């Protein structure tokens, strides 16, 4: 159920982490860089362990800096609670390994973050969990894949490389009354631009490494959902797999979230201009950006998302060689994987991240030879466009 708030999102992004009142009145959440916490006496230790008294025990089980980040994220996603963990993949694995047991089945989108895909495709079968990957841009494919043993529907929207969009309302309707947990990876949108929980999705996952942190200086993940599920996760896969976030990283994410809305506004504004520029450039075959009228799901994007985000992929007419040449010619755009930073990052999957993948398999995953991925930053967009122009025309 969605929460109700006195203040609007922009205000909450700045003020929502005030749950922890520190002793000295520091404006910012202190970094509680401590692995363990001291008990006054043996009775207090016992009471904390059996949950009769609130309070901290050991940082893998909870820490005040982590806790402020969790409260902040639950607040922004409109959820009851959240858990902060050490990476986006720690978030994905803690959730699915809790929800799925031997013999269970999951329906997952066929366009997923690479490591999420390998976890589902290569590791989960080792635990006798069956996963069906379907093209979720057609909800009927999801409907047809459901079995009696289906426990989870896993979505990522928009998703690389074509920035295809899944209609989350349809997913919620399909799962309704079936005892299926719906999960959405909301990394590309952040809660500022898309709030799946408010649409009825059960669990949201983030790689906080990306837009939430926003500065390319930390790795983290967040799980958001009901109080009941968060309690269950804390007592199982989060505590026992132990992929927790350190207090300093939690602090950096709290700091990043303060400026989330202004960064996202600028990134979206820049991305719209850069996508248009690319669409009109003679070296470019095709641009994938949900904000372009030419995107096949532009109207769904407008309905479901607050804005269109900062990820653009485009296909160069010159294929593999043109992609490689552009990578080696850019001077301002930074040649790096990851996304969501203040700097514009550029990547050519065929010659970089997917170099070892055989061309036929690459094509099947939509990674064509001339495909370039751009994570738009907050620079002056003219400078980025000039850099891309000189890189493509050199
Ligand atoms: C980066 C990313 C992940 C994994 O997050 P890490 O923080 O790198 O573990 C998961 N999903 C999406 C969409 C991502 O972009």
Shape: globular
Number of domains: 2
Radius of gyration using CA atoms only: 22 Å
Main sheet overview: 7 strands, mixed
pLDDT average, as an integer?
A: 95
In the CATH hierarchy, the third-tier topology of the largest domain is known as: Aspartate Aminotransferase, domain 2
Oligomer: single chain
Instruction: Identify low-pLDDT runs.
Output: none
* Second-tier CATH architecture of the largest domain: 3-Layer(aba) Sandwich
Per CATH, the superfamily of the largest domain is Type I PLP-dependent aspartate aminotransferase-like (Major domain)
Number of strands: 12
Question: In words, what does this structure look like?
Answer:
The structure is a single chain. The chain is of the alpha/beta class and 394 residues long. The protein has two domains: 9-257, Type I PLP-dependent aspartate aminotransferase-like (Major domain) (Aspartate Aminotransferase, domain 2), CATH 3.40.640.10; 260-393, Alpha-Beta Complex (Aspartate Aminotransferase, domain 1). 39% of the residues lie in helices and 15% in strands. It has helices spanning 9-15, 42-49, 64-77, 88-99, 114-123, 139-145, 168-175, 190-193, 227-235, 237-241, 247-258, 260-280, 298-304, 319-329, 359-364, 381-393; strands spanning 81-85, 105-109, 130-134, 150-156, 181-185, 203-207, 221-225, 284-288, 311-316, 334-335, 345-347, 371-375. The strands form two sheets. The protein has a seven-stranded mixed sheet with strand order 1-7-6-5-4-2-3, with helices on both faces. Strand 2, helix 5 (114-123) and strand 3 (130-134) form a beta-alpha-beta unit. Helix 12 (260-280) packs parallel to helix 16 (381-393) and helix 14 packs across helix 16. It is globular and about 75 Å long. 46% of the residues are buried. The mean pLDDT is 95. The site of pyridoxal-5'-phosphate has 15 residues, from helix 4 and helix 5. One of its GO terms (biological process) is transsulfuration. Its cofactor is pyridoxal 5'-phosphate.
